[in-house]
């Protein structure tokens, strides 16, 4: 019979910490803690497979699951000396979800299970605390009613508030035992009316229904959304943990808390967390009351504090990772409820990894694998320019929950945040967030809450998402309905409203009214540098280059660790104000002679640009691509010209002057407007294409107008000469775009080679090395890569175009239906962001193999957007490319992804123990 249920408690467990797939994160943690002798309330875990069986079998489980559960329950009863349903001294249970990957607050929990009319009286007597017992029962009915019986929570809230009103009290804690008893009566009526049955009195029935409710919550919309966001498979299912309750709310010698063995925001090695006296666990996470910092636990109960530090330090050593733990103290006795590897910010991930290597807790390989490449993004986040903050009003200083600076317009609800985010950056402001806010938090650039601490929902989720977050801004009082907030700042009250601009800093907790200026981050922090150095060792020869067109970007890329330029899009240089007129004149020229005249003016400018690039990249390869986009991108739009021409006969002098300004690059005056615009329109119409992306662009331009390629080749090699004369080591690689076969490359290569050899010979630099290669961005070129490699000395995959052309999907128009396609799971992800390994990847793999058959030393890279996306980088490594190239700010992400790809590949091929 399959084993569906695993017991734990009493210093032992049937499962262990390696069984996350079956027991979920929480269940495996409980088993492992129990084995390590940590005080854990006994219980059992129903495995994740049962969740899938439950859905596959019409929401029922095999009878063996129940049989094994009753057996495990008997164990719990033995260990606690209490019995479920015992009227005198009842065992109470918590029933919690727990998937393989943590999904904080996304699924259901039921506490105080086992209470009914009878056992509640027993609990009241046993604890001599009827108020406590009735409060537990009413919480249980409410929680169970909502979660397991689908009753609207608002109905319970209304009854609760009505009683408070009747009793003329403000605080829940002022309700007496009698009040609570009356509320229980009301609640039972609500259940009867809404569910058409009595509130279940049989604790075993309660247990089965609660377990099923936990499974059902796997498909709650917020849980599905979270899985999609975090790329967690729907098929994993959740385990269900059923465990003896311990109470942090039995009086002032009880408390409950959560913490981390290190600061999850900065990674600093400090004991970090918070606790609430006389409260249940959910109160801390929900952020309803603002808890005390954990350092104050020592004053409250030094013995408990020391024991907690000892246990958590032991757990960190045991798991060799920062732990996120939950604990409860019941009448002075400490219980650990959960431990797991803690979620952390990017900076903390890097710091913890580096520190743990220094502490000899983990090796360098483990450290490199510990940081998700995308987390590095947070180290590369902008910070505020201090001077720009001076003119802004500081609204509040809250708790720094997740680092980074963000500027945006205030949204008071998550729906508003999603809507407003379409028009620009948004900051979500809430009293506190709940799991229902997940979409708003995702859409917002930053999150601010009025209450809650560092472990509140907002803090935990924002950190996981890498969103800047400030919580517990006590000075802010929110009126959600009016979509305003009153803020006490500097002795007066300021009212802010939806749409107002604010600037918030999750690194120090400050919130300002107005828009601050943000500054690029510093990639040179010593911890970061140390981490990246570790990663480099594992990467071997695999390189990371940057896509950069100007020396400033090239320098930024080198600072981030780029080892060359993988793509310089030369046409970007033609758009500059001093060049556009020459470019336009060249395009509008009727004859080759006229075109050459214009190109001669562009030549020195391009040469200067290239020289700057070569000098900035001294000793590193620089790939320069010849002109790529269709020429009409450089001239006025056909429709605009037509409109202006139509308006011209009735235009007054002011309108005419505006037109002269608009067309000034074409040497127009007021009196020549008509003829110039007519000529211009004629030429623009000549250039007009139905499908410009598939039209006269890329190498086709250079084939029709060889003088353009000639000019560019001359500019490149004259720049090589000039930079070399200044003592720079120049490694030029000239790249021809958009070829569909070897013939196009042959044509362009001949032009480039002729000019290159001529220029170098003249300069006495015949020995200067250079490569001429091509982009592979048309499927035909990929398919015929063996032929292409006869001429190409390198390949660089232009996966933006290759995705577009392989999938027949416009890279400019896909966003019009991307949402539907990705929601319906027709595409797993945006194929322009994440390489379609299955389809486009097949062509890439084929082309690498075929290319190398012809030319074994063929240099192969990628310069499409995918070159900075971790899973695509891993693919590029796997198919044997030499490098990836991406935008400068993504270079560290690509560097780490490459190191991880290398480690994973080596482990798979049995080289795991190779010392790097
Ligand atoms: C590509 O197509 O992937 C590429 C890098 O070229 P561009 O984006 O300039 O078309
Ligand atoms: Mg392209």
Runs with pLDDT <50, length 5+? 910-916
C-alpha termini separation: 46 Å
Count up the helices.
Answer: 36
Average residue pLDDT: 91
Report the radius of gyration as a whole number of Å.
33 Å
Which cofactors or ions or other ligands sit in this model? phosphoenolpyruvate, magnesium ion
Query: What order do the strands of the largest sheet run in, or round the barrel if closed?
Result: 15-25-24-17-18-19-20-16
Structural class: alpha/beta
> In what range is the share of β-strand residues?
15-25%
Q: Please tell me what the overall shape is.
A: elongated
Helix content percent band: 40-55%
- Main sheet makeup: 8 strands, mixed
Q: Tell how many strands the DSSP assignment holds.
A: 34
Could you write a compact summary of the structure shown?
This protein is α/β, with parallel strands linked by helices. Helices cover 46% and strands 18% of the residues. The structure holds phosphoenolpyruvate and magnesium ion.
Question: What do these coordinates show?
Answer:
- Helices cover 46% and strands 18% of the residues.
- With 916 residues, the protein is of the alpha/beta class.
- Phosphoenolpyruvate is lined by residues 567, 569, 628, 777, 798-801, 863-864.
